[in-house]
Recover the amino acids of this structure.
């Protein structure tokens, strides 16, 4: 199945699932590295890798599947204990998960797995599996010997056409048969067999339908290609159509098991897919090639015999190879002149793989499936007999027996073994009669066992007549072929419909490049070890959704509840309508209606609270999804910098609003990277400072009132405010005068100033400015704030405080200069009223002593550029806001009520003005718009204001002194 | 009347893909995301022609699901295909014992599943 035509929804399901798996794998890998003897973790890694392999295989994502399969193999070896966990192997597995992640990402963004080269990793894994991890060259040569992976993932194994001329190519009809220097010579398939084989058809007329459609497609293809010839470029739609026609024909031929047509159309489709994506330019010679392909398709289609349901095959391998070559080369140069004529009518009669010949009209795929099915039925029958011998009263076993015979009946019918089907039908009838009557089933057992023996014989004979030797009773699960690369010996693409042939013929495809074909549970028994998903200890991880996905997974109880609440809402609405009618009709007393109205409004309040609550819960996801990437990041940083670092994560289960979780990742990466790179000292320095050689970085998440906080802390060298100031002065971020008036806390905040770069090496703070202003902006966008604490020699701690949800907050409404403003309640520590005369002046800033503590005071109107009125009043209503551990008194005109408000963004236009101190707006019950203040910015505005006044005062003083 | 198939799998990828394939084959499809959901769907549908079920699922696993289905007389003959990642002999044996007609090991090729389903439906 081509990934291009997969249902987008299925693919997006896959992305989510794949990322979950990868997110589960990585932290466990890191854990494993620390505790290599912990086999439990290996299971935790193995299972998602196994699932990833499964899902990708299902979707025909061969590259991902191949790599996941290899990774699974090596994990299995580790699990079995036949290999040891070493750093090298960990690196290898990590590189595999990286490649997998890249491919999944590529797939999500561009629809293809991309040109991630998985071959070296696979080769290394193979080498490691052989215990030769260190001998890289050998591994490389092995990989080279194996056929190349294809540039585009294909659902079937395709052997690269080899540049060794062996047989004469088909003589080209009109173009000059000049073989170019690259000497690409496609060869006919030496194993080609022209014995007619049966096509799989479903019901009457299926084959006729197929032919009709095929002819239609051929016509359309010819039309499209000719139109394309007229305008080779700029004809995207034509190319798309052509692609689609080939694709449809491929699908159709696959369904009926028309191998040659399937592989040919597949090649053409692959080529066109690249043309469609603009990777290969369409050209005249390419159109010639495609037209020739269409001709060949037409010939192939004409070989179908509708009456017999069979087809007399043609060897199409030459054309397939040409198409493949063009697809690989990205141009027709190498094959120029080879394809202008119809490729081949040649009959190169060589023995086909035995089973295809012998199946005499049966699709080997069907035979294999049938064998598996029957084998399982036989097993089940025998078990049932045994159990019924012990106790013949077991109804469920009897039902099982009935089903088993019924399955035998149906599947033999499917295979066309009518005689057996009838016989099995009689047995089914027997069991059915017996179970319906009151008789003791024990009486039936002897006769049923005889029936079974007869059926067994009949089936065995029928199978024998097909010429298929059951491989261990389960031919479907053929053992993996040895990677025995002999591409020259068999240049023909194996048709995708008969994977079991892989076991019967020397197949040049190495297991890694095409594991879809080999379920092979026999060869990897451990791969099927029961792993119960539910009992997984850190199952929470898989519950959470990955960062970039735009979908959210919701427990359906929450949805049920939501539905319930909506139901109540509707009832309530009807009640309002009723009350309105009651008022209109005037039959009820107004005060009664008013009473009811109040009740209904209360009910409404309850419902809307409930709704809000539920929807909030729906949006909450654990921060784990973000945190999960850090162990890896820290590990890499640690290895790169040569510092020993231990990352300690706390509170991963803390739930954040989904939008916060999505945005918080990048800022956190910055902070953690800075902590490791610059915060922590080198080992020597640490030892010299009397610290433990291993540095620590903490990543914590916790709830704090109505907001959540994330801390990034390190026990490194800490930041020196003085040095920060000096750097800032040198960079021109602040003036020396400004620096002097800064306290330590403000100095620490300098790391967030734009332009405070670290290009220059400063001993203790180097690099701290990189991207920190971006971090700050990101956090601000999330309506959050950053708080910095640092102690020289002890370490630094950055605390991000974020609102629990971005949509609704509790706020205190205040009136300033005639306008209403909202202050997030989180930031309000208290409200009070003070007498104007109690104000004092400290450092040219107003202050008041409140419970023995000096509190800076500023008039909000002043900060907002509104008319001030503080001087004229006797009593000042004041809101004391808190920005981390700093407090500030804001004088307002009036304190209004506390209210829940819905945050609306200011919009792009207003944002352009870089309005300081405002974080958004909300709409009140009366429809008016109220601006929401940003306490953090209000605080910095006030310090700037103070500084300005300070500078002004100093300037005046200096002037006065100068006079 | 198109045959009605109930697909029970907790992986959305697999569930939707199998549904997609089956629909393409002209089957009528209902999906369920675990055993419990499967039971609910089955009860609300009354009867289906065939069930495809995974084994490892949250809330109610496939084996319990099949066992529960089989406990009811009206469901005792519905063909059930198990589609599971676990494919050891004893897993297969268990699957068949609890009431599956056929045990397929993932990743099964879609067309194989289709054929097997058709095979079971006769």
């Amino acid at each position: 199945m081509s990934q291009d035509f997969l249902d987008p929804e299925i693919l997006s399901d896959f992305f989510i699932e794949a990322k979950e798996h990868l997110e589960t794998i990585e932290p466990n890998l890191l854990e494993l590295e620390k505790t290599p003897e912990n086999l439990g973790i290996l299971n935790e890694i193995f299972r998602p890798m196994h699932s990833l392999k499964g899902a990708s295989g299902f979707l025909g994502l061969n590259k991902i599947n191949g790599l996941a399969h290899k990774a699974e193999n090596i994990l299995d070896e580790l699990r079995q204990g036949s290999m040891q966990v070493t750093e090298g192997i960990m690196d290898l597995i990590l590189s595999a998960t990286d490649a997998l992640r890249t491919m999944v990402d590529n797939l999500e963004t561009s629809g293809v797995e991309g040109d991630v080269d998985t071959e070296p990793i696979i080769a290394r894994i193979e080498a490691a599996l052989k215990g030769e991890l260190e001998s890289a060259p050998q591994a490389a040569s092995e990989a080279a010997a194996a056929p190349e992976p294809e540039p585009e993932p294909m659902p079937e194994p395709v052997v690269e056409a080899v540049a060794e001329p062996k047989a004469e190519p088909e003589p080209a009809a009109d173009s000059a048969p000049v073989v170019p220097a690259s000497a690409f010579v496609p060869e006919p398939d030496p194993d080609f067999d022209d014995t007619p084989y049966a096509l799989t058809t479903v019901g009457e007329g299926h084959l006729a339908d197929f032919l009709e459609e095929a002819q239609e497609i051929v016509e359309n293809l010819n039309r499209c290609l000719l139109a394309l010839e007229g305008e080779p470029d700029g004809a995207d739609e034509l190319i798309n159509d052509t692609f689609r026609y080939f694709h449809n024909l491929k699908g159709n031929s696959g369904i009926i098991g028309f191998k040659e047509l399937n592989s040919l159309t597949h090649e053409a489709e692959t080529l066109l897919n690249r043309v469609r994506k603009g990777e290969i330019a369409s050209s005249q010679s390419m159109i010639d090639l495609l037209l020739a392909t269409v001709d060949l398709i037409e010939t192939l289609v004409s070989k179908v015999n509708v009456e017999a349901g069979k087809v007399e095959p043609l060897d199409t391998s030459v054309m397939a190879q040409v198409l493949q070559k063009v697809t690989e080369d990205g141009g027709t140069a190498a094959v120029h002149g080879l394809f202008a004529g119809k490729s081949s009518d040649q009959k190169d009669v060589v023995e086909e793989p035995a089973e295809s010949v012998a199946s005499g009209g049966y699709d080997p795929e069907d035979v294999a499936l049938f064998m598996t099915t029957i084998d399982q039925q036989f097993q089940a029958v025998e078990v049932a007999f045994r159990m019924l011998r012990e106790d013949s009263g077991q109804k469920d076993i009897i039902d099982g027996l009935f089903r088993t015979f019924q399955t035998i009946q149906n599947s033999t019918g499917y295979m066309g073994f009518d005689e057996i089907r009838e016989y099995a039908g009689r047995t089914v009838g027997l069991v059915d009669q017996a179970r319906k009557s009151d008789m003791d089933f024990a009486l039936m057992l002897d006769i049923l066992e005889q029936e079974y023996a007869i059926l067994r014989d009949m089936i065995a004979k029928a199978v024998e007549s097909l010429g298929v030797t059951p491989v261990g009773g389960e031919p479907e699960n053929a053992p993996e072929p040895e990677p025995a690369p002999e591409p020259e010996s068999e240049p023909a693409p194996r048709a995708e419909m008969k994977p079991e042939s892989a076991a019967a013929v020397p197949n040049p495809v190495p297991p890694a490049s095409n594991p879809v074909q080999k379920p092979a549970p026999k060869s990897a028994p451990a791969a099927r070890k029961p792993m119960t998903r539910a009992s997984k200890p850190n199952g929470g991880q898989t519950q959470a959704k990955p960062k970039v996905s735009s979908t959210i997974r919701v427990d359906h109880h929450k949805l049920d509840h939501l539905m319930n609440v909506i139901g109540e809402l509707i009832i309530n609405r009807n009640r309002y309508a009723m009350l309105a009618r009651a008022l209109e009709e005037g039959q009820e007393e107004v005060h009664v209606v008013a009473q009811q109205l109040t009740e209904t409004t209360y009910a409404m309040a309850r419902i809307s609270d409930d709704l809000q609550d539920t929807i909030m819960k729906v949006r909450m996801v654990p921060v784990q999804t973000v945190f999960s990437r850090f162990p890896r990041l820290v590990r890499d940083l640690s290895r790169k910098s040569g510092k020993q670092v231990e990352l300690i994560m706390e509170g991963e289960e803390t739930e954040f609003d989904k939008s916060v979780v999505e945005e918080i990742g990048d800022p956190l990466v910055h902070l953690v990277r800075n902590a490791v790179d610059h915060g922590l000292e080198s080992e020597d320095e640490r030892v010299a400072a009397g610290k433990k050689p291993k540095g620590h970085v903490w990543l914590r998440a916790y709830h704090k009132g109505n907001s959540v906080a994330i801390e990034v802390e390190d026990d490194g060298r800490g930041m020196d405010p003085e040095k920060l100031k000096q750097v800032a002065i040198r960079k021109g971020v602040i003036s020396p005068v400004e620096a002097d008036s800064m306290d330590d806390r403000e100095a620490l905040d300098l790391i967030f100033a734009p332009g405070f770069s670290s290009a220059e090496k400063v001993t203790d703070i180097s690099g701290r400015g990189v991207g920190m202003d971006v971090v700050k902006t990101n956090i601000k966008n999330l309506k959050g704030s950053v708080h910095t604490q640092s102690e020289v020699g002890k370490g630094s701690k950055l605390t991000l405080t974020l609102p629990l949800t971005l949509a609704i907050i509790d706020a205190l409404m205040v009136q300033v200069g005639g306008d209403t403003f909202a202050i997030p309640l989180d930031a309000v520590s208290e409200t009070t009223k003070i007498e104007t005369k109690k104000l004092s002046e400290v450092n040219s800033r107003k202050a008041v002593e409140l419970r023995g503590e000096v509190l800076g005071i500023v008039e909000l109107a002043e900060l907002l550029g509104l008319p001030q009125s503080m001087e004229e009043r006797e009593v000042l209503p004041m809101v004391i806001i808190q920005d981390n551990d700093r407090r500030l008194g804001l004088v307002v005109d009036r304190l209004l009520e506390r209210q829940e408000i819905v945050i609306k963004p200011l919009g792009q236009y207003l944002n352009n003005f870089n309005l300081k101190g405002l974080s958004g707006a909300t709409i009140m019950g009366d429809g008016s718009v109220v601006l929401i203040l940003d306490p953090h910015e209000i605080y910095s505005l006030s310090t700037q204001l103070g500084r300005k006044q300070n500078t002004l005062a100093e300037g005046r003083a200096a002037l006065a002194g100068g006079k | 009347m198109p045959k009605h198939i109930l697909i029970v799998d907790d992986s959305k990828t697999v569930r939707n893909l199998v549904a997609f394939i089956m629909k393409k084959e002209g089957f009528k499809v209902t999906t369920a995301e675990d055993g419990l959901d499967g039971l609910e769907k089955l009860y609300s549908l009354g009867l289906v022609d065939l069930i495809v079920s995974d084994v490892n699922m949250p809330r109610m696993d496939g084996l319990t699901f099949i066992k529960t289905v089989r406990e009811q007389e009206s469901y005792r003959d519905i063909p059930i295909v198990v589609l599971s990642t676990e494919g050891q002999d004893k897993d297969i044996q268990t699957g068949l014992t609890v009431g599956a007609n056929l045990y397929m090991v993932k990743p099964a090729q879609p067309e194989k599943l289709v054929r097997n389903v058709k095979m079971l439906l006769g």
